[in-house]
Structures are given as structure tokens and as C-alpha cells.
From TrEMBL:
Name this polypeptide is given: Glutaredoxin
Record carries keyword Disulfide bond: yes
Family annotation (PROSITE patterns): GLUTAREDOXIN_1, GLUTAREDOXIN_2
Top-rank taxon, per record: Bacteria
Domain Glutaredoxin: from-to ranges: 7-67
Record CDD domains: GRX_GRXb_1_3_like
Gene: grxC
Origin species: Thauera mechernichensis
UniProtKB keywords: Cytoplasm, Disulfide bond, Electron transport, Redox-active center, Transport
């Protein structure tokens, strides 16, 4: 039995893609996740860039798996793979 992995999203306050990604996660039943505001803490942006290799927000991680941005999250959902990841099953 898998445990539900922690979801981590690097975001800014006004990013429309961050808002869309958050809405999808909430729709999928992710009640709590780590929302890291890189606009408030430049060190966290550096952390995000090291972890993801990308500069843009959002950057979403489900457990140790780097999903990518909002479009990547929605693509996983359309492909039917997001629910499994959220349950802790391999990508």
C-alpha cells in the first residue's frame, strides 16, 4: 500500500499558471500541499532552479517526481497519469 506523496509547488502570488495548477490539485483532492512563494524569498527561487533546472513558476513536485509546470500537470491529468502519481504509484 502506497502512502500519498507530499506535493510541493513553487509559485508567485499573481501567476495565473500557478492559480490554475493549484485549482487542478484542489479538484483532484489534494487538500494540503507545500506552496512555496519564490516572490517573497529569493533563496527559495534558487532552490527551485536547482531542483527543477527551470526558472519559471509554477514548478510542481509530487514526492520526488518533478512534474514541471502547469501545462505539464494538465498533460499528466489528460494522459490519465496524475491520479496514480497522487496515490504514490510510479510515474
Amino acid at each position: 500500500m502506497s502512502t500519498q506523496p507530499r506535493v510541493r509547488m513553487y509559485a508567485t502570488a499573481t501567476c495565473p499558471y500557478c492559480i490554475r495548477a493549484e485549482q487542478l490539485l484542489l479538484h483532484k483532492g489534494v487538500g494540503e500541499f507545500d506552496k512555496i512563494r519564490v516572490d517573497l524569498d529569493p533563496a527559495r527561487r534558487e532552490e527551485m532552479m536547482k531542483a527543477s533546472g527551470r526558472r519559471t513558476v509554477p514548478q510542481i513536485f509530487i514526492g520526488d517526481y518533478h512534474v514541471g509546470g502547469c501545462d505539464d500537470l494538465h498533460a499528466l491529468d489528460r494522459a490519465g497519469k496524475l491520479d496514480a502519481l497522487l496515490r504514490g504509484e510510479p510515474a
